[in-house]
Amino acid sequence: MKFTIIIPPKAQMRDRVRAFRHGDRIVGRSYKAPKQRQEENRLVALLLEHRPPEPLEGPLLFGLRAYLPVPKSKSKKWQAAALAGEIRPTTKPDLDNLLKMVKDVCSGIFWQDDKQVVEYLPGTGKYYGKLAHWEVEIRLLGE
Fold first, then answer.
1. Is CB count within 10 Å lower at the N or C end of the chain?
2. What is the CATH number of domain 2-140?
3. Cα-based angle 26, 38, 4 (whole degrees, multiple of 5)
4. Where are the domains of the chain?
5. Percent of the chain's residues with pLDDT above 70
6. What pTM did the predictor assign?
């Protein structure tokens, strides 16, 4: 299955840690930042339109292309090269966190757990695009 999600790619944020006193010790508890939860909910709402009737089982191949907006501060020549794929984003967010964001929200929708993803498809990466969006592809191993 292959589909496009029209929403600007955002990376998975680190968990926040709140410290509190428990008796004579200081204990930390982690939680998701409210902005992170909000981004996940927006992404889930758009992903639900493409979900299979049942979550996929077995080993999966996962492809993700994150199209980031072209910086307006760059020259027209640079922008044209970026849109042609000659220049790729080397700025934040990093690819690991983009992948983590989508893989985490796909759990329970497209697959039971993201441990089922055994390989990334060719072309997985960050690109520049006129419209910021995600392109997602999921295949069963051997398909």
1. C
2. 3.30.1330.70
3. 135
4. 2-140
5. 95
6. 0.83
User: Among all chains, which residue has been given the structure tokens 């999600």?
Assistant: 5
Q: What is the pLDDT of residues 54-111, one digit of tens each?
A: 999 999 999 999 999 999 999 999 999 999 999 999 999 999 999 999 999 999 999 9
98 sits in which H/E element: helix 95-106
Q: Which residues pair with 136 in a beta bridge?
A: 3, 64
The number of residues in the chain equals 143
The residue assigned the tokens 């027209």 is 76
Question: 């760059």: which residue's tokens?
Answer: 74
Within 18-64, where are the H helices? 34-47
Whether omega before 8 lies within 30 degrees of 0, making that bond cis, reads no
CA distance 36 to 70: 24
